[in-house]
Amino acid sequence: MFKKSWLSLCVIALTLTSVHAQDMSDVEIKTTAVAGNVYMLTGAGGNIGVLATEAGLLLVDDQFQPLAKKIEAAMQGINNNQLKYIVNTHYHGDHTGSNAFFSHKAPIFAHQNVRSRLQAEQDHQTAALPVVTYDNGVTIYLQDEEVQLIHFPAGHTDGDTVVYFKQANVLHTGDLFFELGFPYIDLDGGGSVKGYLANVNQLLAMMPDDVAIIPGHGQLTDKAGYSAFAKMIDFSIKRVSKALAEGKSEQQILAAGIGEQYKDQAWSFISEERWLKTLIKGLK
Ligand SMILES: [Zn+2]
User: Fold this and answer.
1) From ligand 1's centre to the CA of 248, what distance in Å?
2) pLDDT over 80 (residue 217)
3) What is the mean pLDDT of residues 273-282?
4) How far apart are CA 199 and CA 59, in angstroms?
5) Mind listing the domains of the chain with CATH numbers?
6) Ligand 1 center to residue 92 CA distance, Å?
């Protein structure tokens, strides 16, 4: 059996030639200014958030280990001040892969379950483990920014944190948002289909209308984009719940598909079939 971290590696594996090659020499880290002192870095794996102030930098997620030096160079390209804090939004390898590299520079913050799940992996490195953990969240103050780390109950995993930069008015959702289509819900990692939607709806209710949103995967977006994503998940849950209540088999549900309206939400890692199977397993 493959480990769970392998599953998250799949997110990018399908766009590369092979999981095992892990040749990321061609991957470029791109920096996008979001708002205030907050930036988004993209390369391979989950989107990275950076708060860059004169008092130091804060990093949200760190993709894959082979990219660590490129990520560091991209941060230094914004400003050359010291890295002060690192946040892991959840345990998946495409968000925590460079932990061991960056942990020598600053402490890693995460929900307790992130540490527990990383520690449970047979080949884990002690240096890759978060060293400050919390149950519900914590607030980090850096220069004039208030960085709110907010834990949500079972959704993408059982250790999800979203990061809200209050002054800049920017939200990093972690993988509680796949801007590119159907979400990956890690049921074996403590995730929940209904919990995922409840968390997304709660975030939409909490956030100001003009918030800028860095999704876990996909393009920089806004509340309208997040709302559309919530509607798609709501529609999917209702459709599959109804079919299950009518006694339909998995085969029948897969044959009926997700419907015309949302067919185009399939992408390399989460096909229509995989999304439907997750819904069936999670809603049964
Ligand atoms: Zn993930």
Assistant:
1) 30
2) yes
3) 98
4) 23
5) 4-224 (3.60.15.10)
6) 5
